[in-house]
């Protein structure tokens, strides 16, 4: 799972909880997409946008492999803020307006709400980490 943060002894509990939530929620979303595709008789198609996002996401997460324990949490949360901001923008400005199927629009709309919550949580954790690091 590409959203999985590596477990470290010094990783902040909020970061671990957020990473676990991402694994769960992304898995649920993928199952909902697969179910909708099955009931609609459609197959998911790769797009250049999805491909570009996957490449960027992998590159950013690859950088985490080399991060020191001290830097890992801040780098991971920065990555999550960026990815969720991009996803929210894409849902709001491209995917939802382009969806003509009502069931797909509903799924994208509920995904948008979830992504917005994830973005808020990621921002909150990132700010808490920044505040804690400036107090040291």
Key descriptive features of the protein:
136 residues, mainly alpha, elongated, disordered N terminus
Overview of the structural elements:
The chain is mainly α. It has four helices and no strands. The longest helix is centred in the last third of the chain and has 34 residues, at 102-135. The protein has helices spanning 13-40, 48-65, 69-98, 102-135. Helix 2 (48-65) runs antiparallel to helix 3 (69-98). Helices cover 81% and strands 0% of the residues. Residues 1-8 have low confidence and may be disordered. The radius of gyration is 16 Å and the shape is elongated.
In short:
The chain is mainly α and 136 residues long. Helices cover 81% and strands 0% of the residues.
Roughly how many Å apart are the termini?
A: 33 Å
Strand content: under 5%
Determine Rg (CA atoms, Å): 16 Å
Sheet with the most strands? none
- Coarse structural class: mainly alpha
Report helical residue fraction: over 70%
The number of helices is 4
Uncertain runs are 1-8
**Overall mean pLDDT score?**
85
The coarse silhouette is elongated
**Number of DSSP strand runs:** 0
Order of helices and strands: HHHH
Secondary structure elements and their pairing?
Elements: H1 13-40, H2 48-65, H3 69-98, H4 102-135
């Amino acid at each position: 799972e590409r959203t999985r943060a590596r477990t470290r002894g010094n990783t902040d509990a909020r970061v671990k909880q957020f990473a676990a939530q991402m694994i769960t929620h992304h898995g649920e979303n993928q199952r909902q997409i697969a179910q909708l595709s099955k009931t609609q008789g459609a197959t998911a198609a790769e797009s250049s946008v999805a491909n570009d996002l996957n490449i960027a996401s992998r590159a950013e997460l690859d950088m985490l492999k080399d991060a020191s324990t001290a830097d890992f949490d801040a780098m991971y949360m920065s990555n999550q803020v960026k990815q969720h901001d991009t996803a929210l923008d894409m849902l709001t400005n491209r995917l939802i307006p382009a969806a003509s199927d009502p069931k797909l629009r509903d799924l994208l709309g509920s995904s948008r709400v979830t992504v917005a919550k994830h973005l808020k949580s990621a921002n909150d954790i990132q700010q808490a980490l920044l505040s804690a690091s400036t107090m040291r």
